[in-house]
Design brief:
- With about 450 residues, the protein is α/β, with parallel strands linked by helices.
- The chain contains 17 helices and nine strands.
- The chain has helices at about 5-10, 25-40, 50-60, 70-80, 95-105, 120-130, 135-140, 190-195, 225-230, 260-290, 300-310, 330-345, 350-360, 365-375, 380-400, 410, 420-435, and strands at about 10-15, 45-50, 150-155, 160-165, 180-185, 205, 215-220, 235-240, 320-325.
- Strands 1, 2, 3, 4, 5, 6, 7, 8 and 9 form a nine-stranded mixed beta sheet that branches.
- Helix 12 packs across helix 14 (about 365-375).
- The radius of gyration is 22 Å and the shape is globular.
- About 45% of the residues are buried.
């Protein structure tokens, strides 16, 4: 395909959220979507991910020069083989003893002893360099195989979202943006920083580039599904993989009278991993409905002026493909079922670490299943997630034979939107932009 023809193709981004072992679901969905996209003469040229989504994004970016089928098989091979010992050091045994001693020393206030995490993810640092060919990733960025790769982490110092961007066009340079973009050749340290789940994993120190030096935690604490960075990197069409349904839920189940640690943590994770995505998609739906350039009605002047004042391009319509489980809590229920079958009773002898984690999280509850689904790097579970992702991606393609959609009412249920109120808000933003100090 000639370069001129390639440039005419819309820029497609894949947006991958965090979720620990749930990352297998993302790869399962992409194993259906990427070949279907290739059959249309399109390909993903912008990869954006957070936490495990950052790992998957970097893995796919490193093989982006290959046909879609080969890309899929390469990353599926990682997930088919992954085990808990590839991600975290053992809890039961010397690793657990060291962690206990550090906890006691930290509690006693002994100088120089910190207790920044419960688990030791040092095996992940070694495995990342096996899974991802960094030289191939950089070469793909410099060629037509990729436009950009972006992984999002959270700065421990400032609390802001930081997007590390590997792109031949550089990182976005925007005024008044809540995300800080840092251009750099991506390396293992950036991906590990994005995946440093607070409390479970210690913060990761990033050494390059100079302006990005510092300690970082999981990007999901601020920006779990990096839709905005993808759009700022030029995406005109987006594939968004979700780990819970995108539409508004009917309310979370009420926790028991005396909530366990699992109940509390599960509700926090819901806020981080589910609610953020729904808000981002609502904004995308509003943009498509009211603010874009349109041949029939034109663009609203207020948002156009506001965007230009901030150094952004005018709003544009964004086509999307959304893949997520059909029912809320489906992945958690699957984790609970497989855990009970594999590690219940004498099955716990397979891996005592899982028994310890399950006991620490409390009884046989929905919340425990949700949390186990992040750490259950078990072959049966990851294979089941891959199959579930495939099924949900196939369901999207059955409903959208042309792959893409732009009508929010077709896929998202947000209730009625006050169009007049939205336009009034944008008029106010225009006034502010015109009176902002230079």
């Amino acid at each position: 395909m000639s370069e001129s023809v390639t440039q005419l193709k819309p820029t497609v981004a894949a947006i991958l959220p965090g979720g620990g072992a749930r990352g297998a679901y993302e790869v399962g969905a992409l194993s259906v979507l990427l070949p279907a996209l290739e059959a249309r003469g399109e390909r993903v040229s912008v990869w954006c991910g957070t936490s495990v989504g950052a790992i998957n994004a970097a893995a796919f970016a490193s093989v982006a020069d290959r046909p879609a089928g080969e890309q899929v098989e390469s990353v599926l091979e990682i997930w088919r083989a992954i085990r808990k010992q590839d991600v975290v050091a053992p809890i039961v045994g010397t690793g657990g003893a060291r962690m206990l001693l550090r906890g006691i020393a930290h509690g006693l206030g002994i100088p120089g002893v910190g207790m920044a995490s419960v688990l030791d993810p040092s095996p992940l640092a070694r495995k990342l360099d096996e899974w991802i060919d960094w030289d191939a990733l950089h070469a793909n960025v410099q060629r037509d195989a990729l436009e950009a790769v972006c992984v999002v982490a959270t700065s421990i110092t400032t609390g802001e979202s930081v997007a590390f961007v590997d792109s031949r066009h550089g990182a976005p340079k925007l005024v008044d943006d809540e995300i800080r973009y840092i251009e750099t050749p991506l390396a293992g340290e950036h991906v590990r920083a994005s995946a440093a789940i607070p409390m479970l994993f210690p913060p990761v120190e990033v050494s390059t580039p100079r302006r990005g030096r510092g300690h970082y935690a999981d990007g999901a604490t601020r920006l779990n599904s990096p839709i905005k960075p993808a759009l700022n990197l030029g995406a005109e069409r987006v594939i968004v993989i979700g780990l819970e349904p995108f539409s508004a839920s009917g309310g979370r189940p009420q926790p028991p009278r005396n909530p366990s640690i699992a109940d509390v943590a599960s509700n926090i994770l819901d806020g981080l991993l589910v609610d953020q995505v729904a808000q981002d998609l609502r904004r995308l739906a509003l943009i498509n409905s009211f603010f874009v350039e349109d041949a029939a009605s034109g663009a609203l002047s207020s948002p156009r002026a506001y965007r230009l004042a901030r150094g952004h391009a005018p709003y544009r319509p964004i086509s999307y493909a959304l893949v997520a489980p059909r029912r809320r809590g489906e992945i958690g229920r699957l984790a609970q079922q497989i855990f009970k079958r594999r590690y219940g009773g004498l099955g716990g002898l397979r891996d005592l670490d899982y028994v310890v984690l399950a006991r620490a999280l409390g009884g046989d509850t929905r919340a425990r299943g949700e949390l186990l689904s992040f750490l259950l790097f078990d072959r049966e579970f990851t294979h089941a997630l891959i199959d579930l992702g495939r099924q949900d991606a196939a369901r999207w393609l059955r409903r959208h034979p042309r792959f893409w959609c732009r009508d929010a009412g077709h896929d998202l249920t947000f209730g009625a939107v006050d169009k007049t109120g939205v336009q009034e808000q944008e008029t106010l933003e225009e006034f502010r932009s015109q009176h902002r100090r230079p």
